[in-house]
Design brief:
Number of strands: 9
Number of helices: 8
Number of domains: 2
Helix content: 25-40%
Order of helices and strands: EEHHEHEHEHHEEHHEE
Low-confidence stretches: 1-11, 243-286
CATH topology of the largest domain: Rossmann fold
Shape: globular
Largest sheet: 5 strands, parallel
Structural class: alpha/beta
Length: 286
């Protein structure tokens, strides 16, 4: 069998864990990396159009996700960890599920590991792909959340009405955040009524200029990609990320017909040799 980088793979070459990292889980403190062994495991990330198009996303949001993902991938490679990273326009898969299905067919990991997705749609899609390819799926808790889905299910059991404010108060009591003993700081749970008031005819007054940073090469490339590929999406890229001027309206560039998974240069792993070279594939989406 041959993997995406053209490396022959035998049954004994299967990696132990394929660690899937989503675009809002970019941390080496993530539970997905607990017990990670570069000699046995592999990181997998993918940019796919569906995640920006199932609900049309603001251009700045798309650019922020993509540049964050690419910078994190750079850090993964810098650690010498084997990585499969699919870039928009350099693979043919429109959805995360289709891209992952191809990875499971080619890499044949013994287990798929990820952190609890923040989107139920994504969770269901990942579970279906793993089930269809008979690959055990381990979903680990997301440490960025104060409460777990299991905790919420226990709290919600038997309640006729689910009110976000009531769950919020439960978490305040649990964590002690903005609490003075059993009571909220200031004697009130929220100031929603005041926060919903208008500024009046004078507006909000002087507003500090947003903090900006020069766009590096990766961010500049992403801004150009988003300007071309998601031209019809709402919003503007002007001043949204970095001080670099985003490209103006331009004709959509033709998609590439090469590169599927750039990886860590020349590292021999049970998933094959990760290299920055890649195979030819029909190209299109994230």
């Amino acid at each position: 069998m041959t993997d995406l980088a053209g490396t022959d793979r035998s049954a004994n070459d299967r990696c132990r864990n394929l660690v899937l990292v989503l675009g809002d889980q970019l941390s080496f403190d993530s539970g997905a990396f607990d017990g990670f062994q570069p000699s046995e495991d592999r990181v997998w990330m993918a940019e796919v159009d569906e995640e920006s198009e199932h609900v049309p996303s603001h251009k700045a949001r798309i650019a922020l996700f993509l540049t964050a993902m690419r910078h994190f991938a750079q850090e993964v490679r810098a650690r010498g960890w084997p990585l499969e990273y699919l870039r928009l326009g350099e693979h043919p898969f429109p959805s995360l599920a289709e891209a992952l299905a191809d990875a499971l067919r080619n890499l044949r990991p013994r287990r798929l590991v990820t952190v609890e997705p923040g989107d139920w749609r994504v969770r269901q899609a990942l579970a279906a792909v793993a089930r269809n390819h008979q690959t055990p799926l381990e979903i680990r808790p997301d440490r960025c959340f104060v409460g777990s889905t299991e905790e919420f299910a226990r709290w919600a059991a038997g309640r006729r009405n689910l009110v976000q404010e009531h769950w919020y108060r439960q978490l305040r009591r649990k964590t002690g955040v903005l609490m003075e003993g059993p009571n909220p700081v200031g004697g009130r749970w929220n100031f929603d009524a005041e926060n919903r008031a208008s500024f009046g005819p004078g507006g909000p007054g002087l507003v500090p200029r947003p903090v900006g940073f020069p766009a590096d090469r990766i961010t500049s490339e992403v801004l150009g990609l988003v300007a071309r590929r998601f031209e019809g999406h709402p919003g503007s890229l002007e001043g949204s990320i970095g001080r670099s001027r985003a490209p103006r309206r331009s004709k959509r560039s033709p998609t590439s017909s090469e590169t599927v998974c750039p990886g860590s240069a020349g590292i021999k792993t049970p998933c094959g040799t990760a290299s920055r070279s890649s195979s030819t594939a029909d190209s299109r989406r994230r």
